[in-house]
Specification:
By secondary structure, the protein is α/β, with parallel strands linked by helices. The protein folds into two domains: 11-268, Alpha-Beta Barrel (TIM Barrel), CATH 3.20.20.70; 277-345, Type Iii Antifreeze Protein Isoform Hplc 12 (Alpha-Beta Complex). It has helices spanning 26-39, 51-54, 63-68, 76-81, 87-100, 111-120, 135-142, 157-169, 195-203, 217-224, 251-268, 277-286, 321-324; strands spanning 13-19, 43-48, 103-108, 125-127, 148-151, 175-180, 207-211, 229-233, 289-292, 307-310, 328-329, 344-345. Helix 8 links the parallel strand 5 (148-151) and strand 6 (175-180). Helix 1 runs parallel beside helix 5, helix 7 (135-142) crosses helix 8 and helix 10 runs parallel beside helix 11. The radius of gyration is 30 Å and the shape is elongated.
Length: 346
């Protein structure tokens, strides 16, 4: 597993999904890049498409698109046309990302868009759930030899297997697989985060979570469940018109979520059970030591009633009690005094 296929230092790659929340305006897109960078995201992602090549003239909008971007008689193509950015605008967004220090990613939806993004110098390609079964397109992307991230919303395991095989046959670039539920928003009870384990076991690739649930609770849970990549929609303002704003995080929410992801990531640790440095001081006062349960005169052979376990924990551990019993006191020992080997004779 290489850092080029996931995140630097092999941590969680957080992709702030701007998508089409720029509403077709380049300056809004640039503002979204700034928000993502300030929030601490590793990458900001957009969508690159030609509406005429993506949808037929009569293609209907999804229910959530109708609900969030109502327009009488508007087709999916009409809606998408208003959300395009030009080649020059994408170059400007890419340049701005380089300037502020955040990775630029955009999901291509056709081969021309993929070729453009490759020429633009993207480090990796992200494939939408809708194109998981578009195997010719997946192979076109694979031939660039760059890392690919595929989303698997709406898919069966067999369909994911077909996609993985197609990518492997076309060059086998580094591949990561995102579990996803393609509802906007998706309910928490639909998340099925354990599916990430299924994907990891089936394909031996890094897995992650493309999150369409509201808020950040399920995102945090996905990190604990093993997500190596997180993708989450965000916007400048959830009340803006457009299909994806309503299910997106606002800037302060994105910042809080990324901080939470980093906290969970750090909390997972390395799995080795050992005390922290800070716990060593706690152990000194919270654990017990063997002490004299009553005054013991020199020469007295210690019995069960002469020894107790009390705080602090800086003396002989209670597990040594069997070794202490039966020994003679080498000197007078006062009640409550911590026992040591020096004060005990064989």
């Amino acid at each position: 597993m290489t850092s080029s296929s996931v995140r630097r230092e092999d941590g969680v790659l957080f992709i702030a999904e701007a998508g089409v929340n720029h509403n077709g305006d380049a300056q809004t897109a640039i503002a979204l890049c700034d928000v993502a960078r300030q929030a601490g995201a590793d990458a900001v992602k957009f969508q690159t498409f030609n509406a005429a090549m993506l949808a037929t003239a009569g293609a209907e909008k999804a229910s959530y698109q109708d609900r969030n971007a109502p327009a009488e008689g508007e087709s999916q193509r009409d809606m998408l046309k208003k959300l395009e950015l030009t080649v020059a605008e994408f170059r400007a967004v890419r340049d701005h990302c380089a300037k502020i220090g955040i990775e630029f990613i955009s999901t291509p939806f056709d081969e021309d868009s993929a070729d453009f993004l490759n020429a633009l110098g993207v480090d990796r390609f992200k494939v939408s759930s809708g194109d998981l079964t578009h195997l010719d397109f997946l192979q076109h992307l694979a031939r660039f030899g760059k890392p690919i991230i595929i989303s698997t919303g709406m898919a069966t395991l067999a369909e994911v297997e077909d996609a993985v095989r197609a990518i492997e046959e076309a060059g086998n670039p580094p591949l990561s697989i995102l579990h996803c539920v393609s509802n906007y928003p998706a309910r928490p009870d639909q998340a099925n985060l354990r599916a990430m384990n299924t994907l990891a076991a089936a394909f031996g690739r890094p897995v992650g979570w493309s999150d369409h649930t509201e808020g950040g609770v399920i995102t945090l849970a996905s990190v604990a469940a093993g997500a190596r990549i997180i993708e989450k929609h965000f916007t400048l303002d959830r009340t803006m018109p457009g299909p994806d704003h309503a299910a997106s995080l606002e800037p302060n929410e994105l910042t809080e979520l990324i901080a939470g992801v980093r906290a969970v990531e750090a909390a997972l640790g390395d799995g080795i059970k050992r005390p922290t440095v800070e716990e060593q001081d706690t152990a000194r006062v919270a654990r017990r030591s063997l002490v004299a349960a009553r005054d013991v005169g020199a020469g007295t052979r210690l019995g069960p009633d002469d020894v107790a376990a009390r705080r602090p924990g800086s003396g002989l551990a209670p597990k040594r009690k069997s070794e202490v019993l039966g020994r003679k006191a080498a000197r007078d020992i006062k009640e409550g005094e911590l026992l040591s080997w020096e004060m005990l004779a064989p």
